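Severity: low
Component: inverse-folding endpoint
Summary: output formatting inconsistent between runs
Steps to reproduce: submit the following structure tokens with default settings.
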């Protein structure tokens, strides 16, 4: 793709022809009107712009940064300000081009009073792309009503190490699951006319030792086969309109400074024709953090040449320093024109070039019954029942003790990028702005005949054990103790998980493990509820002498999370979530993925066992399922598709939902292959005793990998397939053989497995 090889309307061409250099550069930057002491981005204080807003908009403006999502502002009052500001840009700047407005929207629009949905790890646990698409559309509708045009989501980083603090923003450890669910979010958001932004392209989650911003040592095959597929799916199958670079440096080269990913792959190979925006301050980081640029001007040149069109959140490098380089003949102005074309095409697509901003909204419901209904369904579907000795569902207990730091905390239900934990934490005393009942309050509602006692026991962090005695007394006096432990999401050292909150240990934070162990020792049945943003090493609680009676894993389930968990505890709802990430045995076994080759698993040549406490895909319910009769097309030509069908029967006494998981193993390859790979999945609701046949139409491209020549291929050979309750259990097996010549995967090849269900 050359500097001019892009389809442009006459209107956009005319605008560019009329622009001065300063007007062009103004379109390539954002401005953070509310940036001040708010810690909502890495090093935001150090990178604060010294340019006054009036001066920054003299020549127009590319983007307005987080006008709703930086501090608690009344949405309607802020909308009135925004409409006035957009009118000023249209009427008082020479070219009259409005600003594009972007906001964070990972768990809902990050604005005061807006609905907060479950975190992406919960999307992964639900394995329900259709519901995630529905959620994305609701988020997009709220954004569009408030004059927001671009959302900085979804995060398509594949989980590689649960010690990384940003795991709670990720969907799964399986690239296909990330791609399918992330693409569904893109479709939902963009169906409303709001552009989605893929984050963080690419390699960010593979950082050394799970440390934020640490170097990435992934090889080209891992990049191609693990990190890139979700982004490719969202580009080619989802039609995403924006991509954000990652902060990562891969093998010593910052992504923000190389065209290999941002231009050669993204645009020339995949055909992406939208805009690439910088992660906040990542252009400046080329100088300050990576030291590959001597100054801001050189940083701007490197980023622009690599393919970053827009510098966010402000124009620290793309205005003054870049202008100097252009005027000195060090940067070809055609590079500026290329980026400006992309920006103006985006604004034209969004209808901004025709918008007059006459009437701002006078009322808006950012947390409607529709929002709450989807939030409730997604929360319910995402709760994973890890173990259960029959204590759950609760059989009308008379006395219930709700114990633990997360039992009576609304904040414990939300992730790092929720507005409450991202912004309101800096504004003590400001009300939440929407209803989010705690787990304890929800249990009181769900068990109206029970006497419920609520005791904190300890905090999420720290070593204060002064509440242990009261907690033990409460447990002894109860028929059942529900112990809610886990994380408190926050930013950069504030909290136990979230951006910048990386972990050395995968033990529960603080003294929470000791609290649970002491409560188990009372002899009262203990139901463990983990509300977290990462999986923890809780094998000690799942089996053996000190095991709890039952354990639920929930990943920040959002505003309806308390009610969803309570409904599962009471038996109103049967759990149907499954682990989207392996439950680790220890921090020392990390990084780990179920997609490991033979040498990545346990064997007799090492004394260190990396086997997880529970495998990817695990999840129990209140009924049982039997999967039988897996049948597969016997042979298939490389490049074609095959069919795999399996019979599923509900063998229990109540209705439930099974997650049918189809796995494969490429028995022999020219490079090492995973011992298990999820090919496709389907949620199947069945009444007691009911059956269904689930059929998967599998393109052989699902078994493609990067060969020794560095291109993605499908090799002929034997493929083992199985269906089971997780990646680790082969309940029913079959095999197929890929025949023919080695097939080189091309853009038209289908990437998505199609599923049909016959009841």
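Observed output (run 2 of 3):
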């Amino acid at each position: 793709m050359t500097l001019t090889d892009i389809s442009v309307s006459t209107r956009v061409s005319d605008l560019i022809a009329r622009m001065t250099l300063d007007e062009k550069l103004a379109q390539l930057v954002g401005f953070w009107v509310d940036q001040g002491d708010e810690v909502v981005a890495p090093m935001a204080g150090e990178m604060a712009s010294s340019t006054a807003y009036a001066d920054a908009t003299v020549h127009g403006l590319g983007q307005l940064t987080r006008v709703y999502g930086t501090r608690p502002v009344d949405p309607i009052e802020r909308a009135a300000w925004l409409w006035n500001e957009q009118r000023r840009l249209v009427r008082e700047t020479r070219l009259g081009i409005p600003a594009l407005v972007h906001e964070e929207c990972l768990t809902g629009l990050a604005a005061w009073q807006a609905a907060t949905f479950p975190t992406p790890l919960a999307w992964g646990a639900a394995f329900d792309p259709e519901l995630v698409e529905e959620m994305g559309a609701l988020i997009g509708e709220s954004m569009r009503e408030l004059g927001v045009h671009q959302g900085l989501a979804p995060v398509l980083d594949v989980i590689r190490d649960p010690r990384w603090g940003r795991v709670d923003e990720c969907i799964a450890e399986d690239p296909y699951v990330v791609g399918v669910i992330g693409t569904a979010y893109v479709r939902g958001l963009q169906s409303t006319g709001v552009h989605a932004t893929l984050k963080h392209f690419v390699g960010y989650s593979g950082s050394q030792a799970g440390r934020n911003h640490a170097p990435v040592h992934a090889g080209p095959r891992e990049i191609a086969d693990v990190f890139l597929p979700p982004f490719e799916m969202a580009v080619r199958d989802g039609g995403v309109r924006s991509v954000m670079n990652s902060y990562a440096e891969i093998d010593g080269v910052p992504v923000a400074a190389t065209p290999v990913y941002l231009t050669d792959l993204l645009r020339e190979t995949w055909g992406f024709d939208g805009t690439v925006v910088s992660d906040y301050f990542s252009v400046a980081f080329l100088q300050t953090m990576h030291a590959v640029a001597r100054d801001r001007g050189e940083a701007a040149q490197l980023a622009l040449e690599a393919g970053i069109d827009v510098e966010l959140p402000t124009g620290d490098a793309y205005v003054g320093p870049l202008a100097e380089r252009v005027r000195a003949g060090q940067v070809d102005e055609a590079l500026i024109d290329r980026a400006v074309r992309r920006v103006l095409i985006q604004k034209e697509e969004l209808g901004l070039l025709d918008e007059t901003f006459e009437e701002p909204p006078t009322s808006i419901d950012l947390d409607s019954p529709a929002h709450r209904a989807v939030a409730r369904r997604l929360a319910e579907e995402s709760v994973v029942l890890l173990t259960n000795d029959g204590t759950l569902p609760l059989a009308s207990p008379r006395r219930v003790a709700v114990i633990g730091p997360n039992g009576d905390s609304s904040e414990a239900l939300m992730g790092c990028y929720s507005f409450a934990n991202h912004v309101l934490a800096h504004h003590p005393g400001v009300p939440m702005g929407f209803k989010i009942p705690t787990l304890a309050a929800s249990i009181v509602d769900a068990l109206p005949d029970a006497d419920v006692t609520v005791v904190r026991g300890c905090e999420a962090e720290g070593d204060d054990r002064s509440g242990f005695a009261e907690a033990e007394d409460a447990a002894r006096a109860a028929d059942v103790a529900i112990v809610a432990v886990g994380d408190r999401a926050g930013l950069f050292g504030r909290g136990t998980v979230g951006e910048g909150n990386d972990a050395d240990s995968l033990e529960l934070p603080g003294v929470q493990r000791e609290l649970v162990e002491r409560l188990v020792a009372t002899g009262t049945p203990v139901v463990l509820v983990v509300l977290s943003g990462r999986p923890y090493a809780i094998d000690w609680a799942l089996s053996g002498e000190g095991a709890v009676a039952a354990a639920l894993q929930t990943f920040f389930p959002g505003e309806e999370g308390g009610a969803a968990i309570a409904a599962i505890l009471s038996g109103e709802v049967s759990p149907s979530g499954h682990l989207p990430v392996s439950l680790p045995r220890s921090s020392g076994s990390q990084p780990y993925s179920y997609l490991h080759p033979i040498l990545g698993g346990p064997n007799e040549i090492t004394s260190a066992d990396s086997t997880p406490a529970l495998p990817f895909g695990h999840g129990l319910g209140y009924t049982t399922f039997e999967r039988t009769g897996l049948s597969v097309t016997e042979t298939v030509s490389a490049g074609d598709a095959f069919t795999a069908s399996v019979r599923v029967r509900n063998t229990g006494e109540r209705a439930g939902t099974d997650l049918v998981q189809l796995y494969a193993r490429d028995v022999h390859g020219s490079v090492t292959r995973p011992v298990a790979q999820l090919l496709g999945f389907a949620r199947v609701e069945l009444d007691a005793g009911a059956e269904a046949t689930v059929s998967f139409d599998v393109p052989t491209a699902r078994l493609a990998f990067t060969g020794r020549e560095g291109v993605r291929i499908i090799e002929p050979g034997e493929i083992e397939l199985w269906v089971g309750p997780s990646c680790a259990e082969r309940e029913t097996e079959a095999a197929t053989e890929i025949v023919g010549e080695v097939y080189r995967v091309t853009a038209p090849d289908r990437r998505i497995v199609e599923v049909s269900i016959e009841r």
